[in-house]
Amino acid sequence: MAKRIDVSGLTAFYGSHKAIEDISMTVEPGSVTAFIGPSGCGKSTFLRTLNRMHEVTPGGRVEGKVLLDDEDLYGTGVDPVSVRREVGMVFQRPNPFPTMSIFDNVAAGLRLNGNYKKSELNDIVEKSLKGANLWNEVKDRLNKPGSGLSGGQQQRLCIARAIAVEPKVLLMDEPCSALDPISTLAIEDLIGELKERFTIVIVTHNMQQAARVSDRTAFFNLAAVGQPGRLIEIDDTERIFSNPSVQATEDYISGRFG
Amino acid sequence: MSTAAVTDKRPSTLRAASLPRWTPWAIAAGSLVLGIGISMGAGLDSQIQWGLIAAVLFVLGTFGIAARVEGRRQAKDRVATSLVWVAFLLAVVPLVSLIWVTAVRGVKVLDLYFLTHSMGVVADTEPGGGIYHAIIGSLEQVGLATLIGAPIGVLTAIYLVEYGRGRLAKAVTFFVDVMTGIPSIVAGLFILSLMLIFKMQPFGFAGSLALTILMMPVVVRSTEEMLKLVPNELREASLALGVPKWRTILKVVLPTSIGGITTGVMLAVARIAGETAPVLLLVFGNPFINNNPFEGAQASLPLYIYQQFANSAGSGAAFDRAWAASLTLIAFVMILNLVARGIARWKAPKTGR
């Protein structure tokens, strides 16, 4: 089931450049947490440290602790591959595997990780596609390539692919920024359904979206260009959008930033 | 020559005088006639010179006419276009003539008997004989070289693109570049020196080793480019599913780029299939059929062609055989290329609905 994330004193680097500094927060299991903030403030970088994708970037390095239900993701002997099986991710641009069919795309995470019987795979693929609200649209063409779908469908395919491996946490990096309002609505509804099963963290530039989908909202900012990004505050979404405790947050969400 | 066809007399800022569509053809025909006229007048008897003069006239004529009628900007555009056409023709004419001459001269003795018999005891000056032994030699030597060179090359490229960081990767890249520039005879001499150290007689596999040296850098280079074309997002998508890096490479990166990699390997095979120098040094040549590449001298198609020309003593029969073998070699390489294209198309990422 969903797991809690506890971050304390997290700092991330690209080579010698410090991208984010000293971030601490708690994400409750089964909740939706939104990250907002200006471009370049390190929201995505921070998100990527939560499933050890940050270190995939050349020069990427992390200090501090990320506890997933009391287990440190950056502890000695922790395998990043196992971390990523617990903490799934959906990217900004839909990225289905071009050589695989819709079915194979959803089954990819399972197939590449172990042996499953065909009937088991069928059940999991159907369940995941239903979970991503895509089943009715693609059930008759599961063997067609995934890249033939529309952008919104591709993104839901990517979500189906991510939830097929049954992660405990789902990270979403601006999942709707390349989509039209209707596809966005479909994905926002989906987030509401998925939060019963997964802990969800979503990065977004759309403040209405953050207000609509999230239970808690974290505001990130950076002091100046070239300075590392910092967590300014994290609170219940309602409170952040009505009565934030920091002036900078209010300026940002009311459009008076800068 | 043509004149301006001004269709609209009203002054317009959007429409200017333009040449009719057939102008380039007219200029081409005109410059060809003029080129031949000038050449005849000057007493030049080489048709290549005629063609080159006509080409120069074509480019200059296009510029002059277009500049007068359409203005300088359009004239430059037309000159660029005509230069591209001239360059295209200059490249295509020798290619077509080469294939034409080889085909015409090659078909004389090219038949089933020729393909299925060796030279055996037929002297190089007599008619008869065939290239079966050379085909076997070529297939075995090139096949073995590909078997060794292609995996090493592809794995090296995977290392460079997916894992390589720092000094080792830079050193590997540098030496691959150096290897690309190795003349084939030097690769042959390198293996020959080893053969002399170990006191061995020429055999097919030694040629394969030299061909491997020539093949590897080509495979590395092309595979590297293909792997770089795979979007990073696909790698990240796979890693984020909890797939280990090696499986990501095996199941996502390689399938996405397999078409291009195959094409690259086939082009490398085509390159080494025509190598003569290392085969001459290491495989030595043999008029009899030798199916064993690990012992005794063998023949190969390029070597056979060379030896037929060199040992013909003016015999027409030897020349005919050399041309037929050339045609076989070209066909062999062309079939390989077609197969590679077929595989590339078949394996390319699918986009259809």
Summarize the model shown.
By secondary structure, chain A is α/β, with parallel strands linked by helices. Chain A has 10 helices and 10 strands.
Essential attributes:
heterodimer; A: 258 residues; alpha/beta; Rossmann fold; six-stranded mixed beta sheet; 10 helices; 10 strands; 35% helix; 26% strand; globular; B: 353 residues; mainly alpha; MetI-like fold; 2 domains
Please tell me about this protein's structure.
The complex is a heterodimer of chains A (258) and B (353). By secondary structure, chain A is of the alpha/beta class. Chain A has a domain at 5-97 and 170-253: P-loop containing nucleotide triphosphate hydrolases (Rossmann fold, 3-Layer(aba) Sandwich). Helix content of chain A is 35%, strand content 26%. Chain A contains ten helices and ten strands. Chain A has helices at 43-49, 80-86, 102-111, 118-131, 135-138, 151-164, 181-194, 207-213, 237-242, 247-253, and strands at 5-14, 17-27, 32-36, 60-68, 71-72, 87-90, 169-173, 199-203, 216-222, 229-236. Chain A has a six-stranded mixed beta sheet with strand order 6-7-8-3-9-10, sandwiched between helices. In chain A, a hairpin with a 6-residue loop joins strand 9 and strand 10. The radius of gyration of chain A is 18 Å and the shape is globular. The model of chain A has no long low-confidence stretch (mean pLDDT 90). Chain B has 13 helices and no strands. Chain B is mainly α. Chain B is flat and about 85 Å long. Chain B has two domains: 23-105, no CATH class; 116-347, MetI-like (MetI-like fold, Orthogonal Bundle), CATH 1.10.3720.10. In chain B, helix 3 packs across helix 13 and helix 9 runs antiparallel to helix 10 (245-273). The A-B interface holds A 51, 53, 56, 58, 81-86, 88-89, 91, 93, 95, 97-99, 108-109, 111-113, 141, 144-145, 147-148, 158, 161-162, 165, 167 and B 165, 231, 233-244, 247-248, 251-252, 255-256, 347, 349-353.
